[in-house]
């Protein structure tokens, strides 16, 4: 039996990894797996050596405060991988964690093939790290075609496979009337997949919903959550008297809810691509600690937080970041779109034009899984 260790660092990486491994299981059944993963890899029957939340930290200041704990977790992970002796170490996203582990593993056992999926955003900052990465990562799988130039310039082995969240998925029909009631307009809300993000954004989003309820009476707001943090989100809702908020953590239901939504309000990140691919108009928002913001602002070299806006080199999807990320601003943007359906249609149209340039002709997860299989 060949062996693959799958290393993720947060919920979005766990989801992407599971899509690839699900396809790999179809073409090669003679593979044994172990991971650092979450609920998606677990659903495939793949054991995680510890809970994903144990290494999900956000921001430079939090890392500094937890530096010894993180170092111990890195060493623990390296030891587990070395003892497992996989043929491939498949690292997915979360470069500050996964690549540190990969570097140490490669030093201990150069025979382990290291393949990384989801390139660090070198077009945003720290382009020079490619020189270091190529010393211990054998191959990198890219989500976007424009990334190739950065890695090829450093003669690093890379391949553009596309983004799994942009591939066509079978649409399922689910009876959601019991969840939301009939004749209600749905707005999907994404407050993040990390405790720190949720803690910052939930109070702002709930204040936004209160403002919406003062103007509209026919809306239900659906919070998309991981199973891990649904109770945390519910605790915030319980502190209000809001009766038109629901939390969904089942992936199939979340997908269907998004398809049926008239609008989405989302934390900046991977989920924005899912929203865009579903052809739902949206805005994105983000807020972090002031020190973290100053550090990020000094290092980044792009004007936009959203990949669609970056690829278009203009703001197609409104970005409400830092001080602009407040309930009143969110309300103004969302209500403006709802009052002007032509603006929503125009955003969707422009987004689809950008997505067409970002998509690959094949199936991203099939391409990525075939590549992994080739190295076994």
How does this model look, in words?
- Helix 1 packs across helix 17, helix 9 packs across helix 10 and helix 9 packs across helix 15.
- The chain has 376 residues and is an alpha/beta fold.
- A 6-stranded parallel beta sheet has the order 2-1-3-4-5-6, with helices on both faces. It has a 6-stranded parallel beta sheet with strand order 9-8-7-10-11-12, with helices on both faces.
- It is globular.
- The N and C termini lie close together (10 Å).
- It folds into 2 domains: 175 residues, 3-Layer(aba) Sandwich (Rossmann fold), CATH 3.40.50; 182 residues, Glycogen Phosphorylase B (Rossmann fold), CATH 3.40.50.
- The model has no long low-confidence stretch (mean pLDDT 90).
Topology overview:
Layout lengths: L1 E7 L2 H17 L3 E6 L2 H4 L17 H6 L1 H18 L3 E5 L2 H14 L4 E5 L12 H4 L5 E4 L5 H5 L5 E3 L16 H4 L4 E6 L4 H21 L3 E6 L5 H9 L6 E4 L2 H10 L2 E5 L3 H7 L4 E5 L3 H10 L7 H6 L6 E3 L5 H13 L1 H18 L5 H11 L2
Parallel strand pairs: 1-2, 1-3, 3-4, 4-5, 5-6, 7-8, 7-10, 8-9, 10-11, 11-12
Helix pairs in contact: 1-17, 4-5, 9-10, 9-15
The gist of it:
This protein is an alpha/beta fold and 376 residues long.
Shape: globular
The spatial strand order of the largest sheet comes to 2-1-3-4-5-6
Identify low-pLDDT runs: none
CATH topology of the largest domain: Rossmann fold
Secondary-structure element pattern, one letter each:
EHEHHHEHEHEHEHEHEHEHEHEHHEHHH
Q: How many structural domains does the protein architecture include?
A: 2
| Span between termini | 10 Å
Sheet of most strands: 6 strands, parallel
The number of helical elements comes to 17
How would you state the average pLDDT, rounded?
Answer: 90
Q: Determine the strand fraction and express it as a percent band.
A: 15-25%
Q: What integer value in Å does the Rg equal? A: 21 Å
Give the full name of the CATH homologous superfamily of the largest domain: Glycogen Phosphorylase B
Class computed from helices, strands and strand pairing: alpha/beta
Q: What's the count of strands?
A: 12
Class of the largest domain, according to the CATH hierarchy? Alpha Beta
- The CATH architecture term of the largest domain is 3-Layer(aba) Sandwich
């Amino acid at each position: 039996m060949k062996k693959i260790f799958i290393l993720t660092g947060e919920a979005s990486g766990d989801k992407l990894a599971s899509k690839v491994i699900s396809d790999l299981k179809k073409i090669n059944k003679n593979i044994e797996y172990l991971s650092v993963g979450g609920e998606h890899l677990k659903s495939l029957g793949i054991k995680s050596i510890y809970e994903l939340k144990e290494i999900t930290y956000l921001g430079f200041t939090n890392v500094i405060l937890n530096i010894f704990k993180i170092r111990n977790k890195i060493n623990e992970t390296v030891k587990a991988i070395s003892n497992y002796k996989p043929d491939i170490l498949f690292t997915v996203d979360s470069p500050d964690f996964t690549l540190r582990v990969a570097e140490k593993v490669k030093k201990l056992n150069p025979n382990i093939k290291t393949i990384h999926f989801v390139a660090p955003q070198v077009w945003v900052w720290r382009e020079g790290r490619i020189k270091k990465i190529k010393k211990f990562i054998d191959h990198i799988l890219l989500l976007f075609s424009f990334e190739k130039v950065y890695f090829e310039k450093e003669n690093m082995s890379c391949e553009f496979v596309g983004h799994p969240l942009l591939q066509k998925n079978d649409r399922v029909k689910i009876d959601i009337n019991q969840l939301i009631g009939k004749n209600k307009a749905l707005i999907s809300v994404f407050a993040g997949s990390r405790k720190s993000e949720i803690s910052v954004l939930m109070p702002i989003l709930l204040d936004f919903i209160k403002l919406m309820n003062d103007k509209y009476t026919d809306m239900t707001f659906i919070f998309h959550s991981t199973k891990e943090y649904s109770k945390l989100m519910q605790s915030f809702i319980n502190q209000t008297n809001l009766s038109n908020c629901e939390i969904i953590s089942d992936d199939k239901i979340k997908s269907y809810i998004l398809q049926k939504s008239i609008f989405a309000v989302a934390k900046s990140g991977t989920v924005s691509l899912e929203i865009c691919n579903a052809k739902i108009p949206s805005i994105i928002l983000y807020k972090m600690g002031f020190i973290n913001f100053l550090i990020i602002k000094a290092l980044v070299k792009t004007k936009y937080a959203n990949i669609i806006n970056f690829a278009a080199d203009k703001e197609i999807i409104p970005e409400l970041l830092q001080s602009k990320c407040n309930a009143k601003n969110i309300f103004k943007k969302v209500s403006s779109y709802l009052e002007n359906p032509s603006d929503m249609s125009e955003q969707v149209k422009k987004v689809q034009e950008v997505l067409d340039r970002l998509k690959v002709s094949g199936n991203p997860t099939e391409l990525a899984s075939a590549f992994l299989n080739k190295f076994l």
